[in-house]
Design a protein that fits this description.
CATH topology of the largest domain: PvuII Endonuclease, Chain A
Number of helices: 7
Number of strands: 8
Radius of gyration: 19 Å
Structural class: alpha+beta
Oligomer: single chain
CATH class of the largest domain: Alpha Beta
CATH architecture of the largest domain: 3-Layer(aba) Sandwich
Distance between the termini: 30 Å
Mean pLDDT: 92
Length: about 230
C-alpha cells in the first residue's frame, strides 16, 4: 500500500514512462562489473528490474511488486520485462486461456538490451536498444486475434461453433464449456489485434519481435517506443 503521509509524489503511468526513458538512456552508458562474466538472462533481468525500481523509489511513492509475487507495478497494472535483443522473449504467469484473446490484463514496459563486454574495464554495458510500452488490450496473441478478427470480419459473420473450432485449432487450453463461453464473449465483444506472440507452456512465453517492429514504425496506437 502507498503511504499517504509520504512526501514523495505518487508515481503515475506518465511518470513511469518518462522515468523509464531517462533510466534507459543513462543505463546504456553505465559499465557494471557485476555483469561482466555472466550472460544469464534471468540474472541480467533481475539486476535491471531492481535497479530501475530503486531509481523510482528514491523519487516517488508507489506499490512495489516483483516478478516472483506478480507484476512489478501492481498499483498501475504494469509489468516490466527485460530481454536480450538476440531473443526478445520472456515468460509470464498463466492465468487463463482468454489472455491469448483479450490480453494479459496489464500493460507491458519492455527493455530490450544488447550486452557489451569490456575486458579492459572488467565490466559489461547493457545498451537499451528498444524501450517499448504496450497497452493491456494489445497484449493478446497476434496470430490468435488475427484469425478471430478475420472470422468476425467476413460478410456472413461467424458462428459460435466456428469460433470454438478455431480456438480448438489454436490449441487453447480450454474445456468445452469454457470454449463455448469464450466464443460467445468474442461474438459480443471482439478483441483488438494482439501485438505479442504468446506460446503455450506451463507459463505463457511472450515474444516481442512484432511489438518492437510496431513501435519502431509507429503504426499501432497503444504500442509506443519510449526510447
Amino acid at each position: 500500500m502507498v503511504d499517504e503521509a509520504d512526501p514523495r509524489p505518487v508515481l503515475t503511468i506518465a511518470l513511469l514512462r518518462e522515468q523509464a526513458a531517462r533510466f534507459a538512456e543513462r543505463e546504456s552508458r553505465h559499465h557494471e562489473p557485476g555483469l561482466h562474466l555472466t550472460d544469464n538472462g534471468k540474472t541480467i533481468g533481475t539486476y535491471l528490474e531492481h535497479k530501475f525500481q530503486d531509481h523510482l523509489d528514491r523519487q516517488f511513492r508507489y506499490e512495489r511488486g516483483n516478478s516472483a509475487r506478480g507484476i512489478d507495478f501492481p498499483g498501475l497494472r504494469v509489468d516490466m520485462k527485460v530481454t536480450s535483443v538476440a531473443q526478445p522473449q520472456s515468460s509470464s504467469p498463466f492465468d487463463s486461456a482468454r489472455q491469448k484473446v483479450y490480453g494479459l490484463g496489464y500493460d507491458l514496459l519492455v527493455f530490450v538490451y544488447e550486452k557489451h563486454n569490456d575486458a579492459g574495464r572488467g565490466a559489461a554495458r547493457l545498451e537499451i536498444l528498444h524501450l517499448i510500452y504496450v497497452e493491456a488490450a494489445l497484449t493478446g496473441d497476434h496470430q490468435t486475434t488475427h484469425g478471430l478478427l478475420a472470422l468476425l470480419g467476413r460478410e456472413e459473420g461467424a458462428t459460435s461453433d466456428e469460433i470454438v473450432a478455431y480456438l480448438r485449432e489454436r490449441d487453447l487450453p480450454l474445456g468445452e464449456a469454457e470454449a463455448r463461453q469464450l466464443a460467445q464473449e468474442i461474438l459480443e465483444r471482439p478483441p483488438r489485434q494482439g501485438q505479442i506472440t504468446i506460446s503455450n507452456a506451463l507459463q505463457w512465453r511472450l515474444n516481442y519481435n512484432r511489438a518492437i517492429t510496431a513501435a519502431a514504425d509507429d503504426e499501432v496506437e497503444g504500442v509506443e517506443r519510449l526510447g
